[in-house]
Records
---
Amino acid sequence: MTVKTSSLKLNTSKNFEIIDITSQINDLIDIDEGIVSIFSKHSTSAIVVNENESGLLRDLEFTLDNLITDKFSYSHDRIDNNARSHLKSFLLSSSEALPVKNGKLDLGTWQSVFFIELDGPRHARTVTLTMVGE
């Protein structure tokens, strides 16, 4: 059993941005079979797996914006005015653990891995990969 780590840096250009990082992760995988943990080191971002279809991605932004609206006064905003970003992150996830087969992510036909920026634009967001396998 081997454990390896790697990371990728992302720059975002919008306050809310969905970036497909599937190919970048596949390029960094350094095991043939096993599991890779994909973790965002930021509390105003998320890692999710879903379909890369433009309508669905717009629907996600619409849904999050309507669940956590700007019509309320949030306590955290007194610190740095980004409570909505943190709250959206609570609803999503900061990590995914995914299977690796033949040196690549073993995803379903329509699945992709996304980094979701919730408080951008930001420079040098870090996504850490921890690979466990053979």
---
Amino acid sequence: MNHPATRAQQEQVTEGLRAYGANFREFSRQFAAWLGLHSTDAEALIEILAAEERGATLSPARLSERISLSQPATTALLNRLEQAGHVQRTRDSSDRRVVTLRSSAHVQNLADEFFRPLGERVAAVMAHYSPEQLRQFDTFLTELTEAMNAQLAESATAAPPQRIPRKG
């Protein structure tokens, strides 16, 4: 059983994570407005840019999962981003069926310009913590994400609650 002080601290951390998530969404919204894009288009663009930063590739199907859009809606979104010159769909030379999403150099420069001040502030905050503390925080976030992903998977297959019809 958790001690009341521990519960209060856990609630404070949870609230901090909620606030961080809200701020992240707001930065995404502002980035979209700055680029003149719909917020969902900017969210997709951020996912593509983030995958590239990690050295990973992102397929249209995986992007669809990441931003919770249907395949047809994701195709329409990618058509808009491609037409605007923000992304390219490329095919792997060894397996032509595999489509990979890549951002344009122009949009990479725009994203760097927009997010650089935030990145500098975040780096300054992280500089206050030791490598061991950052490893612990990384482990904590990884475990939270795994718990959330497991719950999302269960929730996606759960039956909705019985609804009582309203009168009148």
---
Amino acid sequence: MYARYCRSMLCTPATAVGRYATCHRSGADICLVDLEDSVPPQDKAEARDRGSAFFSGESASGRRCAVRMNTLTESEGMRDLLALREYPIRPSIVLVPKVESPRDIEIVARLLRPVRPDLELCAVIETPRGVEAAAAIAATSPHLRALVFGSADYASAIGAQLRWEPLAQARTRVVNAARAAEVEAIDSPTFHVQDLAALRREAILARDLGFSGKIALHPRQVAVINQVFSPDAASLEAARRVVAAGQRSGQGITTVDGVMVGRPFFEASQRLLDEFDSSG
């Protein structure tokens, strides 16, 4: 068992109703129906209408289901908010794209919380202004649970290649902003959905940089992401040894397996156990 907020988030177009059940049964920590990038402009109204079934279908029972709305500063985004208020089952998790100001999050919370008091929001950081304002955005609301990095839009906006190295600095800023505000950081998808080796490499890089999860675009990606963002038995056992050593030393500097460890090691190991270890 684990208690981490999200390792994997599988995205499904709202117009692809036939794929809803597959998404729900994929093993993703959060199942996401998309009203934004995966839906052509001419199909937005249809997507809003169909999307309500993502939350009320039989396969959705017991799943954590989310929606990605359209950009708040565009008319489709406002239409999405009004539609979400009227869904028979309102989504408890909403991804807000292209967030550039704390005000974006405040507006969504103001409109949706009256009909969904337990609302959780995730801010997608995918523009230069969004990266610059990431720290303020992350700290703006107790209902904000995560920052999500959007690599494709960000790379396009700054004229960069859609590869890890050119975007590493922006990713680092998103992770730092999220952690400073004590919210989660979720990485963007790997777009080569057939290349699971590339997905694994990028997921490991994201994990090692401090991200706690990653978006998936295809069900086949979910298992790889969940595995990368979950510690194996050896890692959990090592964390137990570090925590025990910290308790014996009174949180003072000591050695474990020939490695000098101190408070940052104790805290990181305890956090890992809190999130993933069910043996205690």
